[in-house]
Amino acid sequence: MRSSAPELRCSQRMLRCPPVPCVLVTMLPTSRRARLFISVLLILAGAVLAAGWAVRQAERHAMADDAARAGGQLVLYGNTLQTLIERYRALPAVLALDPEIRSALLGPVSPEAQDALNRRLEKINGAAQSSTLELLDRNGLAVGASNWRLPSSYVGHNYGFRPYFLQTKAQGVGRFYAVGVTSGIPGYFLSNAVTNDAGEFLGAMVVKLEFPDLEREWGQGDDLLLLSDAKGIVFIANQSGWRYRELLPIPASDRAELAATRQYDKQPLSPLQSHVLREFSGTSHLTRIEGPDGTADYLWESLPMAAEGWTLHLLRKPQLLAEDTRNAALAAAGTWLTLVFLGLFLYQRWRLARLRQRSREELERLVEERTRDLRTAQDGLVQSAKLAALGQMSAALAHEINQPLTTQRMQLATLRLLLDHGRIDDAYKALGPLDQQLTRMAALTGHLKTFARKSPSGLRERLDLAAVVDQALLLLEPRFRDEGVSTVLDMARPAFVRGDAIRLEQVLINLLRNALDAMRDKPVKRLEVRIEPDSKPQHWRLTVSDSGDGIAEEHLASIFDPFFTTKPVGDGLGLGLAVSYAIVHETGGTLSADNQGDGARFTLTLPTETEA
Ligand code: ADP
Asked: Which of 80, 118, 529, 571 is the most exposed place for a label (fewest CB within 10 A)?
């Protein structure tokens, strides 16, 4: 039923906007709507940020993995190259010990000897599968070479300017990668000094290695492989356009050296523009390169080859699986939203609990306040009912006091006469009844004063129920006498209970007056009051029975209701029994009514007071 209002409004607006959420939002005050809007915006922004972060993490992770894999592959490539070089490293040293080769350098070489040397070097070169073998004399002049048949034959050329020759002359061994000045083919020159028995330098035995197979083999993969020298110049690459690129800025001194050694001879060198985007380790980073095929990002792995002074590079285009990144983004956004909604749910629960707690406290406070008001109202009602009863009894009570006063005046006149006649003894005798009457009147007015007083509610004193009945009977005695009611009193004494004596007396006055009212027009008026132990243990039972007409069956259920009366207007207020019922219950007892014989019987039970 509660949702009927929004539904109604929703159906009215149905044509203009999507139903429930729209209506719910438009129903909110502007400030709340703005707050809701900002919250939704923040949550969405959070989801986007989380997704972005996750994508970056996934990328970073994938790239780090890729870099590690590339690093592993690079080591394999490096090992292959290293093995290849190692295989030929010993060749010039071994050949340098060859007596025929040594003897060729001892003196001027005859054409026949040179021919024999050329053929020999050609043969060894074929067997060792090196690219070229050459023998240089002490000045760097090639006296023999395996490629003697080719137009690009080294024989007769001087290579004294080449660093490997100078190294060999100075240190006994040399190594140098260079573009062949004669052949134009790049290769790695490994050389060893040829000495005489005295250890004097006679010349250099040189083996040249070209790497066409290697470049071809490397060219099969998707990865880009580059080999750079100590100056940072790429001299081997498995893809065209990458060779003879400068990876580092080359200082002028190095340029002069390059020109002197003719290392790359006529090959033009050009710088390779790049900048590092992200670094994974000292030898591994993500780099943006302006390569021959345009600008692209590469995972760049480097492996230094200490023995050669070279560096092997592996460049790989990072391959990110769109699916992986999308999944990572979705998972992150999902986690973020779950956390947000969990937070909201917990916050709502907390707010609800606080709200409940507050309303409970408020309710308790209200109940307390109302209870206080009710008690005050009830006290007022009890007092009003008592005063009303007193008002109705006042005429009889005034009569009760007035009558002895008349008698006393007569007795005083008699007394005066007796004194006039000097009958002192008789006068003393006549004073007795006067004294008794005055004592009785004092007791009655004294009690009336007490009864009219507003007794504080909740008073609980130890009292004798029979004494309470006595007091009530005292106040009603004039009516009993005037209306000729015979009373039967059968009361256990003392019948101790705990309660408010004045209030219990008010109950008894109500019961007794109702009994008197019920018997007003009856020829036989008989009232019984009994106090005896109740069937319920530790309880007293007090019954008031009359010989009136009894209570009509249909009224039995209503007589304790406030303002229920069958008496004529002015006689009854209908409050007596309701107030009595409340007083008895407040004292911890019960009050009930039934019919017995001709009349009604009211039964009151109260817990026995055992403490002294
Ligand atoms: P009130 O006396 O002002 O009518 P009560 O609450 O004292 O108010 O009594 C309510 C009604 O209960 C009486 O009007 C009467 O009808 C009925 N009632 C009470 N006591 C007796 C009784 N002893 N005999 C018959 N009816 C009685």
From this structure: 571
